[in-house]
From TrEMBL:
GO molecular function: acetylesterase activity; monoacylglycerol lipase activity
Biological process according to GO: acylglycerol catabolic process; medium-chain fatty acid biosynthetic process; medium-chain fatty acid catabolic process; sperm capacitation; steroid hormone receptor signaling pathway
Lineage: Eukaryota, Metazoa, Chordata, Craniata, Vertebrata
Name assigned to this protein: Abhydrolase domain-containing protein 2
GO cellular component: sperm flagellum; sperm plasma membrane
Superkingdom of source: Eukaryota
Amino acid sequence: MDAMLETPELPAVFDGVKLAAVAAVLYVIVRCLNLKSPTAPPELIYQDSALARFLLKSCPLLTKEYIPPLGHIQTALYGKMGRVRSPHPYGLRKYLTMPDGATATFDLFEPQSEHCIGEDVTMVICPGIANHSEKQYIRTFVDYAQKNGYRCAVLNHLGALPNIELTSPRMFTYG
């Protein structure tokens, strides 16, 4: 009777199958997340001009080697922590009356430090459709840009800000 209650041991082949399955899963993760991709500076294709030279001078990050962070982990962490600890940059809201009576607004955020090239640089930010300067992803980006010496001008799409009334019968369109 005791012999019936004992469970037989699995053959050693089963341990090899488990090891192979774990190795296969790890291989797929490494391939899907591009964890073995070599890092290199981006290939820039441009026509040599005064504007191109100015952009390369004022944005040295364009010519540096990009070492990607673990983006998927960052996305998960931001999903949990970013909503709680989003920055709230301070800016001035500007109002412009358009010919059809619409009131366009944009927010202007001054730099918090000197830009790396020592010049006054303004970045114009146009959020995605129906977004504005009060969205968390825009606030986070503006805060980062201000700390790196950029003045930021953020367009607020017509009808997107909850506390700004529409003054014309239209909302934002790219047309």
